[in-house]
Amino acid sequence: MFTQLEDLPNELFLFIFTYLNGVDLCLAFSNLNTRIQRLLDDVASHQLLDLTSGSVSYNAFRAYITDRYGVRSSFISSLKFDCLNLSPFDIKDLFSCFTNISVNNRLQCLTIITSESASVTTTDIVTLLEQMMIANKQGYGRLEHLTLKFEFCDDYYETILVKIIQRNISFDTMILNVTKCMSYVKLYQ
After folding, report:
1. Alpha carbon 61 to its chain's center
2. Which of 34, 56, 141, 148 has the fewest CB atoms within 10 Å, measured from its CB?
3. From the centroid of its chain, how far is CA 53?
4. Domains of the chain: which residue ranges?
């Protein structure tokens, strides 16, 4: 008597899934069959991907979300990444995955670590946030919690903050975190 993968109970699959990050999980089990896909859909509602921890490389992440239907990016509910570790192309590519209106993404929590020395412009970040807010209003986005972490409280931080306020960008929770803060006073005349 042979035991096949399909013979295993759902509970065992769910137990196995707890040992895999979202990328490995979906690359290994996605589109095997309808039953396993339903289990993945249930698990996917709380997938956290931290591209800063080293457990998932950006290349593996990119391979994961690159499918011809754009469906895999909809599995991610929480994403954290550091702009200092990505090229300008990677950043724009990453942003486009979550602003594609043809995909009903589940991204609820987004953490972006950036600084003036990063290869992302203030306009890129503000445009992403604006598109995510519009997606929420139109019903195909779910972003609720946004955290922007800055290395210093400097002109880069100020520019992003001013643009966010000017464009009325808002989410349920918005945290602007500065790692190294010195006495920063700018006199306006």
Report:
1. 11
2. 34
3. 14
4. 1-44, 45-180
